[in-house]
Amino acid sequence: MVIVQTTFVTLGIMLAVILIWFAVIRRPIYEAIFVSFVVLVTINGRWGKVWDYFTTTLNTSTLYSMTAFVLMSILLTKTGVIDGAIGIILALLGRVTGGAGYVAVAVSGFMGALSGSGPGNVMATGTITIPAMKKSGFPSELAANIESASSCLGNMIPPSSTIVVACGLFQELHPEMNLSIGQFWMVCWGCSIWFILLRFLMVFIFCKIYKVAPVPKEDIPKLRDVFREGWRGLLLPVIIFIPFLLDYLFKSTFFTARLGETGAKHMSSSILFFVAGVVAIYTMFIVRDKKMVSPRAIAGYFSAGVKSIVPTIAVCFFGYMLGALFNDLDIGPGLQAGIASLSLGKLGLCVVIPLITAVLGIAIVGSSMVVLFGSVIIALFTAVGVNPLLVAAMLPCICAVMSNMVPPIAPAFLAGVSLANADFGKAAKNDIWWIVTQYILEVIVLMGFLPVFGL
Fold it and tell me: Would you list the domain boundaries of the chain?
């Protein structure tokens, strides 16, 4: 009982420090996580183990994989390779009633998966999709929520870096399953398709409610023109998808037979770096103006992108250090014991855990939440008969997606409101519908009521 009380007191202190530092003092979230780490280390007298927490974090390969994907997304954005793909989608869907909203779902989900950042993707694609939606009759608050809710999906769609974290947790908990990253990504895609369909359904319903019109003809590019210029950009998702599909289909047969079990395992792990590198090389190959991909230009992109790279990596770095401290303090077992003592059962757990992660998401970034509580969540669900692989694949959804949607802090939501110049109150009221439907579908998927490809 003492460990349970200590756990919830520790979590309460952490939440309080993060909220004060981020919401009141208005400092960056990575600073808030670091300050909470310092406070908890001091309170618990763990300064003698700080170096252990630091080295444990440095030995986490996920940090390096995340860096590779962030750099890859910067290169895609700066070279404009992705613009052609966006233009093609607009040409295909722009004539549909409410087509700009469907474009926002498709483009933002795709780009969000590449960047793994909900708010960052809102700022990147929202500059195009939000004006297009407003011009075709979407209210500002609705345009803001469509963009932010769709961008958040990127956190649960491979190759989002948050998924890398979840996969690592599952592999540590269940090494006997010898699960490859390709297999895990297939399950993640199987889960994410339901949430993508939900976003399309929500756009359809709101288009009926607000009587939204198609995109004006003069704003729709000709498919022939944009396809001629941008068809190469459409190959990006294919290039990303194929290595993981091959790993999923042939790891246990073709690759294991030729490389051995250890070799096949390491090959699966290296896919993360391999894909980022191949996409970067392909980008440099198809760019018409080769000056845009000169060593000096690329160095300039990465130099200018430091402000976006450092916060992302810092959040996870300090989150891993906080996670190492929590492991030392047995916070995970304490939280698990506290929730397990409630004897909630499968349905109760499927209802309560997403609520808890939504509340924690007010103060904790989704990727950090996966690091801190992912193992506990998987263990709790496994104990009541839920497939642990399904739970691991849903971690980025119930943690990272929801944390970007729930006001008042929700960074992706705030980014959308800012770009759309929407009234915060109206946007927050409309956002409730997106949050509620997201939550309901999370419960349905966790209960196993919907088929998930890869399981």
Answer: 2-446
Of 397 and 100, more confident: 397
pLDDT at 65 > cutoff 60 = yes
Alpha-carbon span 21 to 321, nearest angstrom: 18
Instruction: Note the pLDDT tens digit of each residue in 404-450.
Output: 777 655 667 777 887 788 887 888 889 899 999 999 999 999 999 99
pTM: 0.70
CB 140, CB 423: distance < 8 Å: yes
How far apart are alpha carbons 24 and 17 in whole angstroms?
A: 10
What Å distances lie between residue 84 and 8, 42, 141, 159, CA to CA?
A: 50, 52, 28, 20
- For the segment 331-379, what is each residue's pLDDT rounded down to a tens digit? 766 766 777 777 788 999 999 999 888 877 665 667 777 877 788 888 8
- In the chain, the largest separation of any two C-alpha atoms, in whole Å, equals 68
What would the DSSP string read from start to end of 146-214? HHHHHHHGGGGSTT-HHHHHHHHHHHHH-GGG---HHHHHHHHHHHHHHHHHHHHHHHHHHHHHHTPPP
**Alpha-carbon distance 236 to 275, whole Å?**
10
Q: What is the DSSP letter of 216?
A: P
| CB-based contact 314:30 (threshold 8 Å) | yes
- CA-to-CA distance for 257 and 200, rounded, in angstroms? 43
